[in-house]
Design goal:
By secondary structure, the chain is α/β, with parallel strands linked by helices. Helices cover 35% and strands 23% of the residues. The protein folds into two domains: 120 residues, Thiamin diphosphate (ThDP)-binding fold, Pyr/PP domains (Rossmann fold); 133 residues, Rossmann fold (3-Layer(aba) Sandwich), CATH 3.40.50.920. Catalyzes the transfer of a two-carbon ketol group from a ketose donor to an aldose acceptor, via a covalent intermediate with the cofactor thiamine pyrophosphate.
Length: 279
């Protein structure tokens, strides 16, 4: 985070320079000599939305990295938690949104962003996450990854970032209860690989659960809902952050807001129970 103090006669103001950071990135990109990246906390890009909007209108090729997204920011509190960033970037017509879930996919997202036209946004978390992918894993814009599956899967779970790790933990736990879960990493939220997700959801009898470290409005769940609006035979459930959080340990906040492994497992049990009762 950077501050600049501006002094003028009779006035003293302190301004955060997120807007100027994006403006400079747009200017550098206009010369078409460099691949431009601008990085700050995800929540700070909200201050620069006018600049981002104009970047899209002017067909600028810039790359933005937003860290400290979601509840995993933890003790620093809600003002620094990026919980509406995906909603903001999804409204930009030229935007590509990467949501990597480990170090390998983050590196691949940076490589892909550097060669992708338009406004590219890479959403990252604060906390350390374990490695999911091998270093030679191949990634593409708009291509989801099926990271956990079996022939007996009963529910498809779509999750990214910290919630992908929670979903994998929930799937391992539910296996002990003889409940099989398919877990998909979308990798990019925009464009969303709707075909892959829908095809795999058909294999789990239309049952799908999205889990995201973001507000309900404008994130992964709504992107999935939009993709499935003309489809039939699906039972979509969503887990997301429903109200403004407080400071706390990341694992405590994930649990409090119902997007941790226990909440995912319980949501899956409820979906299967509802399906059984419907019969």
């Amino acid at each position: 985070m950077s501050f600049r103090t501006v002094e003028s006669p009779g006035d003293r103001t302190k301004e955060i320079i997120c807007q100027k950071r994006v403006s400079v990135a747009i200017g550098c990109a206009a010369r078409e000599r460099n691949v431009v990246f601008a990085s700050t906390l995800a929540s700070f890009f909200t201050r620069a939305y006018d600049q981002l909007r104009m970047a899209a209108i002017s067909e600028s090729n810039i790359n933005l990295c937003g860290s400290h997204c979601g509840l995993s920011t933890g003790e620093e509190g809600p003002s620094l938690m990026g919980l509406e960033d995906m909603a903001m970037f999804r409204t930009l017509p030229t935007a590509t949104i990467f949501y990597p879930s480990d170090g390998v996919s983050t590196e691949k997202a940076v490589e892909l962003a550097a060669t992708t036209k338009g406004v590219c946004y890479i959403r990252t978390s604060r906390q350390d996450n374990s490695i999911i992918y091998n270093s030679n894993e191949d990634f593409h814009v708009g291509q989801a990854k099926v990271v956990y599956q079996s022939k007996e899967d009963q529910v498809t779970v779509v999750a990214a970032g910290v919630t992908l790790h929670e979903a994998l933990a929930a799937a391992e736990h539910l296996k002990k209860e003889r409940i099989s879960v398919r877990v998909i990493d979308p990798f990019t939220i925009k464009p969303l690989d709707a075909k892959t997700i829908i095809d795999h959801t058909r294999a789990t009898r239309g049952r799908i659960l999205t889990v995201e470290d973001h507000y309900y409005e404008g994130g992964l769940g709504e992107a999935m809902s939009s993709a499935m609006v003309n489809e039939s035979g699906f039972n979509l459930h969503r887990l997301a952050v429903s109200h403004i959080p407080h400071s706390g340990k990341p694992h405590e906040l994930l649990k409090m807001h119902g997007i941790d492994r226990d909440a995912i497992a319980q949501a899956i049990r409820k979906m299967l129970s509802s399906s059984t009762n419907a019969k």
